[in-house]
DNA sequence: ATGGCCAACACAGTTGGA
């Protein structure tokens, strides 16, 4: 079974790229972030014609998340139940034997911004909710754009980024606390090349110069981590014309024992 | 030189992203 996550930065613009990518990478489930579409405008039929079922929760202009799946999607939940928040940043569903959580973490903008305080509140709500979910769901995967670079090796220039949003100690502590609940960073479960990133600024030829960050992640509950065979970043879509600034991350799991 | 790019909204220039 393969699961993937991709912040597409507008599904309206990126739908052709998503369909092309799925044809070349027929993963079992793909989590999308920043769809930036109201539900009435979601391209459900185009995706279904490509052989994928879909669950989505969107809004105008900002945010928006979706799960595309080759298999039946059960028990869909939208947003964190313990946070009063109109922003559509989370959708969860059960696919086969796996609880799939697709999340678009807040950016935070800057450390002195109200948006940073919102990010910290959101992270706290996520933590307590995930902790409870792990008690319920044996096999859980938390995929998405975390907007957190967990370690300095996930940052192209740690000195330049020091003291900024995405690398601040409270954000990194939140990431560590998710690991402490019994989750594994699938990417770091394997030997990986240096300077492996999932996002590059559109400006300054960021991608060509590999000035990036690793901020898109797949965390697996312990029992799922035991089934994890591989985790890779697919940089190919970042070379497309009109690319998203993020690129997909894919995890491969062995079939569960039956 | 602390911006450069991109998308949405709206139809110019602002906001947000990371």
UniProtKB/TrEMBL annotation:
Entry cofactors: Mg(2+); Mn(2+)
Site (Transition state stabilizer): 147
Site label Important for catalytic activity, positions: 216
Domain Endonuclease/exonuclease/phosphatase span(s) in chain numbering: 4-246
Annotated binding of Mg(2+), by residue: 7, 34, 145, 147, 245-246
Coiled coil segments of this chain: none
Family annotation (Gene3D superfamilies): Endonuclease/exonuclease/phosphatase
Molecular function GO labels: DNA binding; double-stranded DNA 3'-5' DNA exonuclease activity; endonuclease activity; metal ion binding
Enzyme Commission numbers on file: 3.1.11.2
Entry protein name: Exodeoxyribonuclease-3
